[in-house]
Amino acid sequence: MSGAEGIGASVRRKEDRRFLLGKGRYTDDIVLPDQSYAVFVRSPYAHAGITSIDTRAACEMPGVLAVLTGKDTVDAGLGGVPCGWLVKNKDGSNMVEPPHPSLAVDVARHVGDPVAMVIATSKAAARAAATAVAVDYDVRPAAGNLDTATAPGAPLVWDAAPGNICFDWHIGDPATTDAAFAKAAHVVEIELTNSRVAPNAMEPRAANGHFEASNDQYTLYTTSQNPHLTRLLLAAFTLHVPEHKLRVVAPDVGGGFGSKIFHYAEELLVLWASKKVGRPVKWTSERMEAFVTDAHGRDHHSKAQLAVDANGKFIGLRVATLANMGAYLSTFAPAVPTYLYATLLSGPYDFPAIYAEVKAIFTNTVAVDAYRGAGRPEAAYLLERLVDKAARQLGIDRIELRRKNLIQPSQFPYQTQVALQYDIGDYQATLDMALERNDHAHYEQRRQASAKRGKLRGFGISTYIEACGIAPSALVGALGARAGLYEAANVRVHPTGSVTVFTGTHSHGQGHETTFAQLIAERLGVSIQNVEIVHGDTDRIPFGMGTYGSRSAAVGGSAIVKALDKIVDKGKKIAAHLLEASVADIEFKDGQYRVVGTDRVKAFGEVAFAAYVPHNYPIDTVEPGLDESAFYDPKNFTFPGGTHLVEVEIDPDTGVVEVVDVTIADDVGVIINPMIVDGQAHGGLAQGIGQALYEEAVYDSEGQLANDSYLTYTMPRAADLPMFKVGNHVTACTHNPLGVKGVGETGAIGVPPAVIGAVLDALAPLGVTDISMPATPEKVWRAIQAAKAATGKKA
Amino acid sequence: MKDFVFHRPSTVAEAVAMLKARDDGKFLAGGQSLLPVLKLELAEPTDVISLAGVPGLRDIRVDGDRVIIGASCTHDQVARSAEVKAHLPALAALAHHIGDAQVRNRGTIGGSVAHADPAADYPAALIALGATIKTDRRTIAADDFFTGLFATALERDELIVAVHFPKATRAAYAKFAHRASKYAVVGVMVAETAAGVRVAVTGAAGVVFRVPAMEAALSKAFSASSLDGITVATDDLNSDSEASAEYRAHLIGVMAKRAVQACA
Ligand SMILES: Cc1cc2nc3c(=O)[nH]c(=O)nc-3n(C[C@H](O)[C@H](O)[C@H](O)COP(=O)(O)OP(=O)(O)OC[C@H]3O[C@@H](n4cnc5c(N)ncnc54)[C@H](O)[C@@H]3O)c2cc1C
To answer: What is the complex's ipTM, to 2 decimals?
Structure first.
């Protein structure tokens, strides 16, 4: 099409006008007539019996409409919050799936677990009354983190889960893997933690529930990445109201990073409470509340072994991982450390044998679930740290060792030993591109220049792969998913030729209102100014599964393309009639239907008009209107990958790490809007660097979150980051019509091991061999002191 | 945040009288410390008395060998002031590194000094330079002013009017900022004034303190190497998730040397 707006054009984001003017409309902005406000009383203890709740004083306070407790939810027959994925144990039995009451009934199981809900005419009144709810707790020993939960004799989060084990799962072939290790020339071992992070979307979660008695209709405004999924779970599991009486609206949403995929208790409770008090009920999370109630990410502890032959070729991989689930199973929690993690353990490497075991562990902490990358960052971090360690142990250059083991372009489609089949990629090309753009050939000069300034410079590399565009429904169904993962689109061409697209995906920062409009511009030749993208309202959009796992372009975009195919085809029939030609002779290009080889044309707008004013029309064979829907179920995951290079400078006196260069070359498939793709890469990189150097949600052994505010939880800031150099090498995805793969998570997946690799490279001359995320100044300083002491002893 | 009555007096005397008349009132300057405290309901004053309408508290002037900074001068104002830059560049630089731009545009020197946050930057400057605090009723030497964690020598209804800083022969401040909050984990001000060399440390303990051993060494020879081997005991130092007492003790040495080097 007119390259100015179609695929490949860096058009400015249409949605930014309202965001930059402060005119976004978020859930908390919605104030309904008679609005009331909810505040939750939450457990300050990680594990405590609830002996009594006295709500009388709170009920008497001014403005209070109701104070509801777990007992009320039981009496009302409300369902518990369900888990959307069933993982099986090694022996084929089901995982332990404990109940998840929306308000804790007898026991509170993490700090922040809601115990009572206060509804009042103002937020201030609700807050005041919440402090008057008297809860008697019988404090119990807690399994506060992975260490305490897995220690012998640890307190049990659930009696039904001995050893706090939720499931004990595995993938791969132990026998071939054992055989590979038996003949290995070298075995390299690593043990590491993938640190826990809090999601920290800029907009805290919020939910506004409205029950209208006149027509028995429920409406929920909520901060969701997937309103249809929320509606489905409300209808089928928690509220027990049929879908046609339930509307879920996710208006503008200020970031999710995964944490807004899940169905949370508050969403159910505001709807239920609205019916009880006869007024709309709104809850908006406070920031400190968000720290202890949003589902967190990562939190793995792993041991891995790599078998290498005499030529430096990887021949086997063994992994054993403990994954923290938190106290309750959040919507996709069990899938993250299994099908989104262990299936990625081959990375971009050719591995003849892999065996991985994953034990999921309950702890008295808030749930852990998908967070930007969800499982794939954990896999990439483990594998890349292990490969770095192998390079050092074997005395092979880190880049060379990777080159030796990367899957070759000729090997695609490549079947891994852990279930996935990669369709396409060119890992050498992205490696070469990154090294060239980083001017790696002159790295040694930069290192010396840093040394002159008293700084230790280090270089880190990660060659990673991820799987996104989730997902083929039949496949994930076989793996335990309780939902399909297709996507839906409705393309409505209006009589005068403008277009509205209704998509099942949801934009909360990704820029769909622009990129999806570009798909229309590309295909129909309609300017993006004449295209509106509608998302986020179950009463308007078709049933789609929302946005996460970098699926929107690959799955949602493909659904739009399928609907566009139908539009174009129907238009051909209309154009053939108008042009008095046969359908087979009509071609559609640049917004015009043409009789092939002639100058006889009908503009797309004319055809659209004819469809709605069918006076001269093939009415016997073609229905009026130009409005088509499509569902798209992907055939496979997509597999973006690439190389991330990081250079750091370390101040040896203080241990401060500064990231001085980040150069990446990704292959995210065909690029619709390069500017938006770069932006997604930038955000992901910032988040990945955040995990590597700054962020960590620290639960102590008692299950108290040590850092639950921005006074102590360090987010990366723009000033902490260098200008990112982002390159792309495209191999088109082979199985979706756009050739796109996905870019929402690549930065957060690829970069953490490169940062830590760079830190360890800088410290290697001092004898430091290990450091955990986040590499804080004190940790780095201590590692330097310890290494100095050790070498001092040796000398 | 709980409800309170808001007042906007127009003189120092009126402000002080208003506070005196109320059991539980608070002055409000830039609000960068008080508002978070109110929002978290760590304090619930009945009355908030804004200093925004009180004239004469926003001036910076030089008087002989002193630089006088009005209590309501914002951090940004101090950072940009030609007088401060000319006579106490280290103080301008310190102010420039407080918090972020929003905080510097609102927060004031009087508020910071009165609040006496153990991790605030200004206390190091007041102690190292030997400043005096001028209030509505008296003059207090900085040495007598900071009495403990969030505690000062101020009476309940006493208002800071200005801070008087002696000019320095040389001075520099080196700060190791908390990565999340940007407050000082360790901040060291080294200054040489007519009264001699002083080394003041903020952020590291419950209250700003001096390091006599460093002062003695620098008085003998003002160079970073003079500080070699001088350590600060960890007993009274803060230990938290950002920095252990041991690490803070180490940072005091590093920051002190950097301040000395910056004095050159
Ligand atoms: C995000 C953030 C980062 C920050 N980082 C830093 C930092 O890096 N370094 C640093 O030093 N500080 C930092 N601060 C604190 C900041 O400098 C505050 O502005 C300062 O501590 C208080 O000044 P204020 O004018 O805002 O006082 P307010 O908040 O208005 O008042 C603070 C207290 O002082 C009292 N008070 C105010 N004025 C007077 C007066 N004239 N006489 C008597 N009592 C008075 C008030 O009653 C109140 O108790 C930060 C603050 C924030 C929010």
So the answer is: 0.95
| Token pair listed for A748 | 């957060």
CA distance A629 to A542: 8
Averaged over A398-411, what is the pLDDT?
98
Domains of chain A: 16-22+486-632 (3.30.365.10), 88-94+142-381 (3.30.365.10), 423-468+637-795 (3.30.365.10)
Q: Give the 3-state DSSP-derived string for chain B, with helices as H, strands as E and coil as C.
A: CCCCEEECCCCHHHHHHHHHCCCCEEEECCCCCHHHHHHCCCCCCCEEEECCCCCCCCCEEEECCEEEEECCCEHHHHHHCHHHHHHCHHHHHHHHCCCCHHHHHHCEHHHHHHHCCCCCCHHHHHHHHCCEEEECCCEEEHHHHEEECCEECCCCCCCEEEEEEECCCEEEEEEEECCCCCCEEEEEEEEEECCEEEEEEECCECCCEECHHHHHHHHHCCCHHHHCCCCCCCCCECCCCCCCHHHHHHHHHHHHHHHHHHHC
Which of A269, A328, A324, A263 has the alpha carbon at shortest distance from A297? Answer: A324
Ligand 1: residue whose CA is nearest its atom 44 = B114
Dihedral over alpha carbons A440, A441, A445, A448 (to 10 degrees): 60
Structural domains in chain B, CATH included, are 1-53 (3.30.43.10), 170-263 (3.30.390.50)
CA distance A280 to A270: 8
CB distance A703 to A518 below 8 Å: no
Ligand 1 centre and the CA of A773: distance in Å? 33
Rg (alpha carbons) of chain A, rounded to whole number = 28
Peptide bond into A155 cis (omega under 30): no
Which residues approach ligand 1 with their CB closer than 6 A?
B 26-34, 51, 71, 98-99, 103, 106-108, 110-112, 114-115, 117, 120-122, 159-160, 181-183
Mean pLDDT along residues B14-30: 96
Task: Find the angle CA(A68)-CA(A71)-CA(A73) to the nearest 5 degrees.
Answer: 70
All residues of chain A having their beta carbon less than 8 Å from the beta carbon of residue B251 are: 654
> Is-contact A490 A629, C-beta < 8 A?
yes
Per-residue pLDDT tens digits for B63-122: 999 999 999 999 999 999 999 999 999 999 999 999 999 999 999 999 999 999 999 999
Q: SS3 of A66, please?
A: strand
Phi and psi at residue A209, to the nearest 5°:
-105, 135
Q: How far apart are CA A1 and CA A11, in angstroms?
A: 14
Mean pLDDT value across chain A: 97
- Name the strand (E) or helix (H) holding A760: helix A746-763
CB-count exposure of residue B59 (10 Å: 0-12, 13-18, 19+): middle
Q: How far apart are CA A398 and CA B10, in angstroms?
A: 69
Q: Give the separation between CA A403 and CA A387, rounded to whole angstroms.
A: 11
Asked if A715 reaches chain B (Cβ–Cβ under 8 Å), the answer is yes
Interhelix angle A777-794/A746-763, nearest 10 degrees: 30
The one-letter code for the residue type at A467 is A
Give the tens place of pLDDT for each residue, A554-572: 999 999 999 999 999 999 9
Task: State the Cα–Cα distance between residues A140 and A301, nearest whole angstrom.
Answer: 25
